[in-house]
Design goal:
Layout: E1 6-8, E2 11-13, E3 17-19, E4 41-43, E5 60-63, E6 66-69, H1 78-89, E7 95-100, H2 105-115, E8 122-126, H3 143-156, E9 161-164, H4 172-181, E10 186-189, E11 193-196, E12 198-199, E13 204-205, E14 211-215, H5 220-233, E15 238-241, H6 247-256, E16 260-263, H7 266-269, H8 273-288
Parallel strand pairs: 3-16, 4-7, 7-8, 8-9, 9-10, 10-15, 15-16
Antiparallel strand pairs: 1-2, 5-6, 6-14, 11-14, 12-13
Length: about 300
């Protein structure tokens, strides 16, 4: 019998396929096209303690091999999320992972405390947010800040904590070790790479924010490399993401050392991508006689 279950920070997922935050809403808009019961977990859009309006438009641009986004983590805030999105997701047999964002450590802690009595399974802390008290540098770009915010979030969290790492650093393993030192239960990586597009006809920036986060197939080789390096550097389970479009892509991340994978940009052009990836992983296991998916995790080590 084929076994696809994985354990992420003590939480059992029926399979390793998750959605990536910000690409799936909180599941409602996709539920008519995807059987959410088939997914290991749904990762919600970023949730802040108060509503965030996001960045001015235009804030999406297509680029070769992917897309740029500068949405700015627009979200309705915790109260709407708790009243509307959690009850919706509770209808399905899938794990709920809440992505948390903030502009100060206090913002993160506020959301984490409010989630402590909510029926959700894991927290994913987005530390690519700019730290307004430190001149706008992202929390995730300074190892001391990574360790400090991880430790503070863990002090207040009732659920296991996944720290979502930014790739916009010199050494991803330094950030991973800092999160581990702060007490993280798991890591997810990579978040988007900072990029820019210029409209040569208008001679201006394609995004009102000038820069945006690059995602899609173009970032996958970078993401696989960072997941592999991180898996060698820390003992924490990893959620790998970055350009996963097919089951083959997902399996590559598992072989590199990821325990689970998150599918993001693919959802925009193929709303059924996550379910098809689940089915594709099962077909791969059957084809190669893999009885337990854990045989694949980190199988490429040399």
């Amino acid at each position: 019998m084929r076994r696809t279950e994985v354990s992420l920070a003590g939480v059992t997922l029926k399979n390793p396929v998750m959605t990536a935050s910000g690409t799936f809403g909180s599941g409602a808009e996709y539920s008519e096209m995807v059987d959410l019961n088939r997914l290991g977990a749904v990762v919600t859009k970023g949730v802040a303690n108060v509503p965030w309006p996001g960045n001015p438009t235009p804030r999406i641009a297509e680029v070769y091999g992917g897309m740029l986004n500068a949405i700015g983590l627009q979200n309705p805030g915790f109260e709407v999320f708790a009243a509307r999105d959690i009850p919706f997701l509770r209808q399905f047999d899938t794990r709920i992972v809440v992505n948390v964002c903030g502009k100060t450590t206090e913002d993160y802690v506020d959301v984490v405390e409010k989630l402590s009595d909510q029926p959700v399974d894991l927290l994913e802390i987005n530390i690519s947010c700019p730290n307004v008290k430190e001149g706008g540098i992202a929390f995730g770009q300074n190892p001391k800040a990574v360790e400090a915010i991880t430790r503070e979030v863990k002090r207040h969290a009732a659920q296991p904590v996944i720290m979502k790492l930014s790739p916009n650093v010199t050494d991803i393993t330094e950030m991973a070790r800092a999160a581990e030192a702060g007490g993280a239960d798991a890591l997810s990586l990579i978040n988007t790479l900072t990029g820019m597009k210029i409209d040569i006809h208008k001679r201006t920036f394609a995004l009102a924010n000038r820069t945006g986060g690059l995602s899609g197939p173009a970032v996958k080789p970078v993401a696989v490399r960072m997941v592999y390096q991180t898996a060698q550097a820390v003992a924490l389970p990893i959620v790998g993401m970055g350009g996963i479009m097919t089951a083959d892509d997902a399996i590559e991340f598992l072989l590199a050392g990821a325990t689970a994978v998150a599918v993001g940009t693919a959802n925009f052009h193929n709303p059924r991508a996550t379910q098809e990836i689940v089915e594709g992983i099962e077909a791969y296991m059957d084809r190669y006689g893999v009885e337990d998916i854990r045989e694949l995790i980190g199988a490429v080590r040399q």
